[in-house]
Specification:
It is a single chain. By secondary structure, the protein is of the alpha+beta class. 27% of the residues lie in helices and 38% in strands. It contains 4 helices and 12 strands. The strands form 2 sheets. Strands 2, 4, 6, 7, 8, 10 and 12 form a 7-stranded mixed beta sheet that branches. A 5-stranded mixed beta sheet has the order 5-9-3-1-11, with no helix packed on it. α1 (8-21) packs antiparallel against α2. The longest helix is centred in the first third of the chain and has 20 residues, at 25-44. The model is unreliable at 1-9, 11-32 and 38-50 (pLDDT under 50).
C-alpha cells in the first residue's frame, strides 16, 4: 500500500473538507468551488519551465438519437506522454448542454488517476450544479512515477450518460466542454489545454418495430390488390 503524497491543491481541499461538511448544500457548493479554484491557483504557483499541452474531447463526436433514448459520451484527454511525464494528477472542468433537449443521468470516472474504491483518487466534482451545467473534477493521491506508469498518451477521464428529452428530426444539440478550470500534472504543475471539442447529437427518425413494419406491409399489399381488381 503506497503512502499518499499531498500536493498543495489536495492539502487545501482536505483542510477545508471537514468545515464544508457541516454547511448546507448551497453553501457547501459555493465553498467547494472556491476551494477548487484556490487549489488550482496554488498549483499554478508551482509552474514549471516547460508546459505540455493537452486536448479534451467527447466521443463519439456525432450521434443520431431519438427522444427517450439514452446516450453515453466519453470524456477523453490526449496529447500527454505515453507512460511517462507529464502525467495527469487532477482536472476540474464544466460540461454544458441544453436541458430542453437532454437530461443528465449520471457519470462515472475512469481509473487512470487511480482507483477511487481504495482512495487512490478523490472525486471532487459537484455534478449538475445548474440546469445544463455539469461539473466534473478529480484529484489523484498517486505519486508522479505511479501516474506515469499508469497512463497512456490518451485515456478516459469520465463517461457521462444523458437521456434525450426532446429533439426534432434533423435538429441538433451539442454538449460542450468548458470552461476548464485546470489540469495539473504529477508535480502539481499546470497542463495547458490546447483544444476542447464537444459532441453533436442529431434527431433521427424513430424506427418502427418489426410488428409495425409487418402491419404496414400488409396494408400496402391489400391496397395494391384492391387497386389491381378495380
Amino acid at each position: 500500500m503506497h503512502t499518499p503524497v499531498y500536493t498543495p491543491a489536495l492539502r487545501y481541499f482536505l483542510a477545508t473538507f471537514e468545515e464544508k461538511a457541516t454547511m448546507d448544500r448551497l453553501e457547501r457548493r459555493t465553498v467547494t468551488r472556491k476551494s477548487i479554484l484556490l487549489a488550482i491557483t496554488l498549483s499554478l504557483c508551482t509552474l514549471a519551465s516547460g508546459v505540455r499541452g493537452a486536448t479534451l474531447s467527447l466521443a463519439p463526436t456525432a450521434s443520431d438519437v431519438t427522444p427517450g433514448s439514452t446516450i453515453s459520451l466519453d470524456l477523453v484527454v490526449s496529447g500527454l506522454a505515453d507512460m511517462g511525464a507529464p502525467s495527469l494528477s487532477a482536472f476540474d472542468l464544466i460540461l454544458t448542454f441544453e436541458p430542453a433537449n437532454l437530461a443528465f443521468i449520471s457519470y462515472s470516472l475512469g481509473e487512470s488517476l487511480g482507483n477511487l474504491g481504495v482512495f487512490d483518487a478523490l472525486d471532487i466534482g459537484l455534478g449538475e450544479v445548474a440546469p445544463g451545467v455539469l461539473n466534473l473534477a478529480e484529484a489523484s493521491f498517486l505519486t508522479a512515477p505511479e501516474l506515469d506508469a499508469l497512463q497512456s498518451g490518451s485515456f478516459l477521464l469520465a463517461t457521462i450518460d444523458f437521456m434525450v428529452v426532446a429533439l426534432g428530426v434533423g435538429d441538433s444539440t451539442t454538449v460542450n466542454i468548458g470552461p476548464v478550470f485546470g489540469l495539473a500534472d504529477g508535480t502539481s504543475s499546470p497542463i495547458a489545454v490546447t483544444a476542447a471539442s464537444g459532441a453533436t447529437l442529431t434527431g433521427a427518425i424513430i424506427p418502427l418495430p418489426g410488428a409495425a413494419w409487418l402491419f404496414v406491409s400488409s396494408v400496402l399489399a391489400l391496397c395494391m390488390g384492391l387497386r389491381q381488381r378495380q
